[in-house]
Amino acid sequence: MGTENVDEDRRRAEVFDALSHPARIMILKALSEEPLGFADLKKRLGIDSSGHLQHHISKLSGLIKTDDYGKYILSDQGKDALYSVDTVERAVGAKRSESKRANNSKSNTILKATILILAVLLVVSLALAAFKYSNVLSLQSEIAQRDSTIVNRDTLITQLDTAIHVAESIMKLKPPSDSQYLTMIPDSNNERETTKIFLSHTAASYSYRPPYPFNATLDGSSQKTFELTENRSIKLSFWGWWFNVGGMEAERYGGAVGGGAPALNIGVTVRNDYTSADIGAPIGNRMGSYISIVNLGIRFYSHNGSIVEVAENTAITAPTASSNTKMGGVSFLLGSGQTKQVIFYLSPSPSDIEVIDSYEIYVSSLSAY
């Protein structure tokens, strides 16, 4: 009887030793589902080493066996051992569930208190964020207003610089001499044919009316007052800047404002000195009047005598002065002894303004009417 007890205890010890490693319990559970060969069992358990798997199988001696096909299956003792393992796991799981429920109850209380605290903190944070956001918006609006003011001031300074530059350019512009007969445009040999179209007067003006960057009130003197700061302002003409060369008579020709860019206006007064006594002269007799068809041209020169090409102001399609004024570059009728004004509307580029030194008036074409 004592020997049987010893053997029984030894078998139990062997079973406990066999189940002491989790890999061996996994082997028993895998074989409880289906018979598996060595390779399949190795793959199922994810054991890389065949030696390790063989070691565990040898430890499970008596708990597993092979069937007729050479696959491992559970023995009756192995089934009992696995049943014992399941029983222990269920007991442990029940204890854990009970402990978890107790912990959950305590955790729920703590969680509710935490949520309440977080809710209060969230409300306070949102209030602070809203306050700060309002301050940020106000600051951004103030910064944007200041930036706009700075940009407007810089724009106005640039416009003033341009006006000063234009004024300097008109001061150095050299018009042709008055009281002279005009010539035809020089040919390739620079030879000129003198006509009897007499240049009585010429004048030039630069006009510059940019789009002012500030809103300003217009007073009775056609001037705008621009508030630069709280105690600084500048008063500018609504009509922009006009710079003349040729005396006050330059104003009689009028001119264009240039649409935001500097405009150059060249005015001339000419007289037709051809008479019936000029045999073969380009003057015709219609209904007892002697009339010529005249077309005037203009050339600009730099200080070294090279020609400067200046574009016409195509926005002007009719003279801006009196009805007696004609457009430069356009043919017009001029009777014997008659005097007329002609004005050229031009759009010089900034580089043109920089290099123009002088200009001359020519007769582009001349014929009898």
Explain this structure to me?
The chain is an alpha+beta fold. It has two domains: 2-74, Orthogonal Bundle (Arc Repressor Mutant, subunit A); 173-368, no CATH class. It has helices spanning 2-18, 22-33, 38-45, 50-59, 76-172, 350-355, and strands spanning 64-66, 72-74, 180-183, 194-208, 217-218, 223-227, 233-237, 241-245, 263-272, 284-286, 289-301, 307-308, 311-312, 325-327, 332-335, 339-347, 358-368. The strands form four sheets. Strands 3, 4, 8, 9, 13, 14 and 16 form a seven-stranded mixed sheet that branches. Strands 10, 11, 12, 15 and 17 form a five-stranded antiparallel sheet that branches. A hairpin with a 4-residue loop joins strand 5 and strand 6. Helix 2 crosses helix 5 (76-172).
Q: What are the key terms here?
A:
single chain, alpha+beta, Arc Repressor Mutant, subunit A, five-stranded antiparallel β-sheet, 6 helices, 17 strands, 27% strand, elongated
- Specify the helix fraction band: 40-55%
Number of domains: 2
Rg over C-alpha atoms, rounded to the nearest angstrom: 54 Å
Quaternary organization: single chain
Give the SSE order as H and E letters: HHHHEEHEEEEEEEEEEEEEEHE
C-alpha end-to-end distance:
157 Å
Average pLDDT number:
84
Which sheet architecture does the biggest sheet show?
7 strands, mixed
Number of strands: 17
Low-confidence stretches: none
DSSP summary: helix tally:
6
Structural class label: alpha+beta
Query: What is the 3D shape?
Result: elongated
Beta fraction:
25-35%
